Every structure is written in structure tokens, then in C-alpha cells.
Amino acid sequence: MVDPKFDLICLGGGPAGQKAAIQAGKIGKKALIVDTGERLGGASVHSGTVPSKTFQEISRFLRRLGRESAQGLRIHAPSNLSIQQLLMRNRIVIHVEEDLAQEQTARNSVTVIRGRGKLSSRHGVSVDLFGGGKAEFQSDNILIATGSRPRRAADIPYEDQVIYDSDGVMNLRKLPMRLTVVGAGIVGCEYATIFANLGVQVDLFDIADSIIGWADREISKTLTDSMRLTGVRIHLNDTIVSYEKRNGMLLLRSQKGLELEADQALISKGRTGNLQDLGIEELGLEITDRGTIAVNDVYQTAVKSVFAAGDVIGHPALSSTSMYQGMYASRYIFLGERPQFTRSQMPIGIWTVPEAAMIGPTEEDLIAQGVKYGAGRSDFQENTRAQITGETKGLLKLLFDLESRKLLAVHIVSEKATELLALGQAVVHLGGTVDYFVNQIFNYPTLSGVYKAAALDAVNRHYAGLMAVK
Length: 470
Hints:
CATH topology of the largest domain: FAD/NAD(P)-binding domain
Mean pLDDT: 92
Low-confidence stretches: none
């Protein structure tokens, strides 16, 4: 019989809920995870981050094989792979992640219960157990970490295998020859490049005037140009308004009157939090029109005993940031330790081809804030390691305070951008200056050498080549 009293109850077993419960266990507290999945991991492991990035890696591998063959190395990429074969690696990686989650929660004495939990009071959770029956639990601290799901527009005729959202990708039975992606946010852009790498004709639509609309404009444009070179046809200031099935095909019509045929359509219009039927409104908490819940800087809602983390609190809604938020919600609850970084200070990675990654304000943000800033840029075309690997499309941009030379932001579009960002992220968080890169020795040839090239560009542009460290 499970003791009904816990120090922390987490509704949801994805990245935020897991890390919160594990952190509580490490502090010596009793933690409970209530999760609806057969195994822990949430959408991150089962339909989002892990499977999509695994799928992306497979598509990159096949793209590299094709490129090397084109350069005369006689490497022949298989041309008749089924979608099931392409997704086989996903099942292996997902299984490993599930096992790790089970091991880590068990090792930290976290209790896991399968069922649908609901807030019954400010300190109570009622669970409909999947094995049958109900259970009641109490805690002074409850964390809502139920994740998110794709946002579905009511006017789109969704149909399995034909018109689907990002959750449907992993259940495809047939690889399309022609795919239309509606929505050029992170998910839409990632899947557009995955399918383009696999030889699918991809049309990407967005009603905005740029892809990844909140990103630095120069980075968005660089990524747009690079995606077009991979074969993605990008249509901006336009969206699909009519979906008609005809002779086994989709006849699509855009707002601007463009007509095109496709085998499948992937709708990517953002995500909304899984907050329905949780008893939130009964406690006096409001759900925003974006399907999120408001929290303060320690992830606490307007009800002091109830916290929230991960996708349910909105942007950036990444697995990495969800883990951080869950961990620090626990650390605040039990240790009084506040998060070190706000959401605007967290790194963002986009697994397109090429990748994009960023930390800190955009150039447009700095202009709006009236900050006197400088910029340094480096084109990957001039990087020796990029020439060796053949991945020469990309840009690294450093933004820094003109007077103090303190590094404010790093924006990258390139192969391995999500890995490269870590160096710039460290300098930003440690309060370093652009001179760090100027005076540092980088192994040669490496992709990270672009940092030094961008810093030298900054110094030459703004300080007439004077390199003395401030």
C-alpha cells in the first residue's frame, strides 16, 4: 500500500516532472510521479524531441552519402528504404531512454503511478488508476508538468496518414513523394528539412514574413537561404486555406491563390499545454489562450502550493529548458534556491539542416532597447574544417556591448550549431567579453574557430583592430 503523503507530487513524467522528482529524491524527500504513459518520458521521448532528432540524424546520414557519391567517392546510398526502416532506429533510442528514466527514478526512490491525476485541492491529487480504481494523495507541493500537444485548427480536415500534425509523423506507413508543411516554426522547419533530405519534394508555408519569426532576422534569412538550397520551397506571407482530396491526392490552395498537389500535409501551428481536466480552474488558476499557465520566476503559480514547469508554461518549451525548470522548482521548494537563469537567458537549439542555435537577445531586441552594441560575424565558408567536411553553409554572429565589450548574445546557423553554441553560452553566462575569443587559442582546423574569426571581425570593425583585453 502506497503512503498517500508525499513531499512533492509531479503530474507528468516527462523531462520537467522527472527532474523535479529526482532532485527531490536526492535531497532526501519523498516524491511521486503520476503519469499517463506506459513508460516515463512524455512527448519528449515518445513523439517529440528524441524521435524527431533521431529521424533527423538518419536523414542527415543519407544526405551525406548522396553528397559524397556526387563527389565521386562511389558511395551508394540505398534508394528504396521504407519509412518503417527509416524509423527503426527511433525504437531503439526510445527504449534506451525509457530504461534510463526508470533506473534514475528508482535509484532516487521516486514512486511512479500510472493514471490520470487531477488537483482535488490545493494540497490534494486524485488519480484514476489505469489498473482500475481511484487513489488520493496529499502533498504541500504539487508540480504541474503535463507537457503539451500539437495545436489543431478547427478548420483543417485532419486525417491519419494524409493531413496530420507532428505527432502523426512517427506513425506514417508510407513516405510521401510530395509533402506540404504548414507552419514555419521550429517543428515545421525541422520536419521540412528531414523530408527534403530523404528526397521528398517539400513546400513550406507560413503566414509570417520570415521563418522562425522570433529569431534574429539575419539568422532567419541565413537559415531560409540554406533550407532552399536543400530543396525546400518556402512560401512566406501565405498559408494553405483549402484542403481537398482528389484521386488519391491532396489539392491545396493557398491564401494567395497558389494551387499545388501533395501526397500528404503536415500541419505545424504550434503546441498547447495539456491542462484540460486537471482541476486548475477550480483552484482559481487561469489558462491563457495559448494553453499555458502563468508562473513567477521560481515556477510558482498564483496558488502557492502549486508549481508548473515545462511546456505548460510556454516558450521556450524545449526538453532542455523543461529539465532545468523542473530541477529548480524542486530546489526552490526544498532549499530556497532560485533559478540562475530566466527564460530569456536559456539556450535554444533548432535541428534543421543546417542547424540553428542561439542565446541572448536578437539584434532587433537590442535596437528596441536602445543598447549601444557591436556585432562580429564569421561565414563558415571561410572555415577550414567546414571546407573539409563540405558543410560550408552558415553564419556565426556575436553581439556585445560596445563600451564594456561584454558578450550579450550568440546566434549561429551551421552544421553542429547546437553543439557549437555551448562555448558562446559559457562566455555569456560567465560575463566574458568578445576579447576572450580574440586572445584564445583554438585547435586547427575546428568549427569552433569561427568564434575567433567573428571576434576579430568585431574588433576590426569597432575598435580599429585594437585587441587589448578590457
